[in-house]
Amino acid sequence: MKLEYSAVNHGFSGYAGTIPAVRNVNLSVDEGEFVVLLGPSGCGKSTLLNMAAGFIKPDEGEVLFSGKEIAGPGRERALVFQDSALMPWLSVEENILLAIGNRRLKFSQKRNAERLANEVTRVLDVVGLKGFNNAMPHELSVGMRQKVSIARGLIMEPQLLLMDEPFASLDEQTRLRLNREVVDIWIREPMTILFVTHSIQEALVVGTRIVLMSARPGCLISEWKLGSHGESGAERQRERLESSEYRDLSLELLNKMELCCPPESGCSTCLEKTR
Ligand SMILES: Nc1ncnc2c1ncn2[C@@H]1O[C@H](COP(=O)(O)OP(=O)(O)OP(=O)(O)O)[C@@H](O)[C@H]1O
Ligand SMILES: [Mg+2]
What we know:
By secondary structure, the protein is α/β, with parallel strands linked by helices. The chain contains 9 helices and 10 strands.
C-alpha cells in the first residue's frame, strides 16, 4: 500500500500563461508511515496531496497507490482539508455520513442504519468527541469541527489519510493538542498519513519523516527520518520539543526553507533567481 510519486511535473494555466507548480517530484511513502510534507506557502504541497486524492492528474510523471496509477478519488484515500467544510444545517453524524453516501445503499435499511450509527459513534470516540453525534456544527469550537472532519475521513476506513494543513487556523495551544491527538489516532488506527504543513514546529512533533519542499516551483529539497519516539502523542511531543537534536533540526529546516532547490541540483530556475 505504498504511495509513489515518480518524476512528477505539474503546472497551472492562468492569465500569465502556465505557472510551474511542482517540478521533478520523486517521493515514496511506505505503508504505516506518517510523512510530513513541509514547505513555504504556494510551493505546491496541496497540488501533490490532490494528486494522491485523485483530484489532479500530473502533467508529467505518475502517482501510484499500491502499484496502480491513481485515476480518481477512492475511499481508500481520504482527504482532510484546512477548513472543516461541514454543512452547517446537518448534525455531526449527518456530516460524517455524507462521506460514505454511496456505501449506505449497499446494506439493507435496518442493518444499514444500526451499522452506520455504530460506525459514527466509533469514529467520534476515536477523535475524542464521544456523545456529540447530534450536535450541530455551530455548537462546536473550530478545533472540534476539525476533529469531525477527521472523523469524516476515518469513517471511510482509509488506508491513506491525506491531511492538508488541518490545524493551520487554530491557536498554537489547540494545534499542539490536536497534533498529539492525531499521533494517538495514527497509533491506534493502522494507516499511512501524508500530512501537509508550513509550520516547522508542527512538522517536528507529529511524523516519522519530514520531507522539505522548496519554494515554487516546488521540488523536494531534503528529508529527515525522525524515528518513532514515544508511546503516545504526548510523549512524542514532549520528547521532541525538549531535545536539543530537534532544536538544531528546527534551525536547519528554517535555513533550508529559504532555499529554492538543493544547491547541487543545478536547476536553471534557481540559478536565474540568484543572479
Ligand atoms: N487551480 C489552480 N489554478 C491556477 N494556479 C493554481 C491552482 N492551484 C494552485 N495553483 C498555483 O500553484 C502553486 C502551488 O499551489 P498549492 O496550492 O499547491 O500550494 P501550497 O503549497 O499548498 O500553498 P499553501 O501553503 O498556501 O496552501 C501556487 O502558485 C498556486 O498559485
Ligand atoms: Mg495548500
